[in-house]
Write the structure tokens for this entry.
Amino acid sequence: MASNYAVQSSFRSEKQVPHGSPSSSSSYVRSVGGHGHFSVRASSKIPASRRPVTPNSRLHSDNDESETGRVRVAVRLRPRTADDLIADADFADCVELQPELKRLKLRKNNWNSESYRFDEVFTESASQRRVYEVVAKPVVESVLNGYNGTVMAYGQTGTGKTYTVGRLGKDDASERGIMVRALEHILFHGSVLDSVEVSYLQLYLESIQDLLAPEKSNITIVEDPKTGEVALPGATIIQIRNLEHFLQLLEIGEGNRHAANTKLNTESSRSHAILTVYIRRSPHGKDKDGNLSKEKDTDGIPIVLKSKLLIVDLAGSERLDKSGSEGHLLEEAKFINRSLSSLGKCINALAQKSPHIPFRDSKLTRILCDSFGGSARTSLIVTIGPSSRYHAETTSTIMFGQRAMKIVNMIKLKEEFDYESLCRKLENQVDHLTAEIDKQQKLRDDDKAQMERMLRETQNSFLEKEEILVTRSEFLEKENTRLELEMKNVLTELNHQKDYSALMCDEVARLDSKKVLADTIQMYEKKIGELAKQLEDEQTRCESAEQQLEVIKKRLSDHQMSIQTEISTYQQALADTTQLYEKKRAELTKQHEDNQKSIQMEGQKEIDILRLKFQEMNQLHGTTISDLQYLTTQYEDLVSEKAKLGEELNDVRQKLLVEQKQRKVTENEMVNLKKIIAENDNNDEDMKSYMKENIGKGSAFGNPLSVSKSNQSKEQCCGPRAAIAKICEEVVLPFNHPVGFGKILGLLSSEDSDVQIQAVKLVANLAAEDINQAKIVEEGGLDALLRLLQSSQNTTIIRVASGAIANLAMNELNQGLIMSKRGAQLLANIGVKTDDPQTLRMVAGALANLCGNENLHVMLKEDGGIQALLQMLKLGNSDVIAQVARGIANFAKCESRGILKGYKKGRSLLMEYGVLSWLISNKTNISSSTQRHLELCLCHLAQNEDNAQDFVSSGGLKELIRISSESSREDIRNLAKKTLRMNPAFRAEMHTELL
């Protein structure tokens, strides 16, 4: 909830982590006492409604500690605001603080008061640091030690809850709230923590929405059936790197949170904000060598401490009659009050130790069930205001805190077996070993394939050699068979020759005496010698063939030996290849590392690109802030005008009280007048003087709704009939008479101009109140006012009717009705025809309000509203100029918003009417409020790049540079500087001028 301390809001890189049920891992819990001066007394019993211990848990009670878990409650008083100083100037504060006694006195009246005691009482001068150290620091330290904790702010709207809890303190670190200081404290101990993660949610219209991922809405609450603990699985959980990272996330969340402008607070939070910090820490002990190591169970399973810190910024309770909420704001207020009422019921039930606690009545109570009556250490800070106007709200807030102090929580330390960490470690080891096995298997498969290929090549080569040898052996065997056959033939021939020789010898013996026998024997001997020589040659050839066969056999054995040698050589080559592959694998590993480094460099480049995009988003956020500041300024102007009208209305009401006391006397005088008129028609002059005298006595200030003394004198100079009609009107239509709007609006069609004047003034005053506007439109008041503008020739009626329409045009719904009934065309015609400054001021005010709705710009142009508004500048009246300046500023702001969002393009419509030259020529000799509107109009027109050439050529750029350094308002200076920085044409022109 936003307070008068002011709140700043503003994108993020994120990872989504599903948040499972707390029962996913077994745990054991031990009950312990608190620590620090913020510890409290604990109950000796665990409430029956609390969650049981899991089957693998061990519960250790520590009864030595007193006050182990009572909810601690502190109260903080908000300083007086400017409205309090004005409204309560004549009244004393309803609250008196006694911080040294830790007491607070609440005054019922000047002589009666009640005293209440709290754990801590902060005055309006208490610093943010002291509030954190007393309220939140003990809870944060408890969370760091493994316990759950909750810090919550409760109070009426506008009392400073968001300032206390969610203040960012970007410009001044001393103004940082509990959220920022708590994370700063936690991150300071980050070296002993395993992880720090956050989620940021809002409960809006009983729907849980993610502030860090706005697209996630209606997140469901999941309750563990065994432990009863609640979780939000759909929430975005982001791990925190440093404090700057957290500030960025918090700024994004605040920018997505719903807020609205009410009578009690200009930036009232319309949702409950819940920041959850998840801390994971492994408890460390000392091993045998004295080194720190993670504690483990007897089975060797590591133990982890998981704790959770909830920081809750509740939306403020409000009363509809004081906040003025209506429409969608009314629905928001109903849901806020309903959830706070459910929380109050739970607090009452816990304080009274009721057997049933209605946690399921609201999503807020379901989320906070562990904070009140559960196992979390809880601190509550209630914020109140000093004003006596809100005595009932302050009393309700104090009683809420008193009841909360009666609640006792059983603080528990939750130590879980870190199965997840162990599982992740084992999974990593398995993945590493699997990858290593896969690598070795792949290498073995490659080696096997290579060996098989080499073996196939060797076998093929062996088969070829063997085939060659077999072929040659078969040839040699054939040759040997042929030679043996020839040898047999030679031996057979030789035997035949021997037989023939023996026969010849016998013949020689017989013919020994003959010479012929001697010659024949000599011839045969010679032939035998030749045959013997041939036989020796054949034997020699046979021996050489056998030798060749032996050589071939030897070669075959040598070839087999060479094959075996080659196989051994291949095996050696295989070993060498394996070593080569190992070297290759090392080179590939190194190359992979180099690739990783290059990927990291590319990732850094992408991060730089994202950082530039984030800077652009920051610039867009700056534009939004400027628009918000401009709207705040406009709202302040409207509030001041409304306050003036309220003061005038109070004066009229006081005067009406006097009128009512004298009304009976006036009625009696009227009866007498009627009798006198009936008796004597010739005494008109006497009756006139008599009427004037008695009317002057009956009304000390004339008509209560008149706006000028000239109208009073004119009405007092009317004839008897007019005077009687006026008096009848005063008698019959007092301000708070229950005749209803219908009869008042019926007088607008009266034929008597005086009656019409008084009736339209009454309607104009009623239209100044927001609560009356819907009734006026419903009863046909808007149609009646438009008919008066169209038909009446009376300047006063036209002026007051225009003012009434200007009041109705402050509502967006009424603006559409006015445009649909051609109200802008009627106002434009009146602005062209009349020269009366007061009438033109009212008409300009109505058109200026219509200019603030960008959906009506086209219709305004078609109906001549823009042209008529600019023609009123010719009159030169300062009040009219102020309204015109406000109107063109509204128009330019809506156009620039459309340009920035991308659904509008082209040169601005105001540039076509020559507004830029008028803005430049009228930059001096005007009021400060008018000058502010003119400067804002210039800045918004300059945001359209299609207008840049006009600014450069007409001197508008120089005027924009002057505004960036000389404007009296810082927000306008910042807007002008941003516009100059974002427009490339302006930068180029300024660079040219510098050269």
In short: The longest helix spans residues 515-661. The chain has a mean pLDDT of 77. DSSP finds 33 helices and 20 strands in the chain.
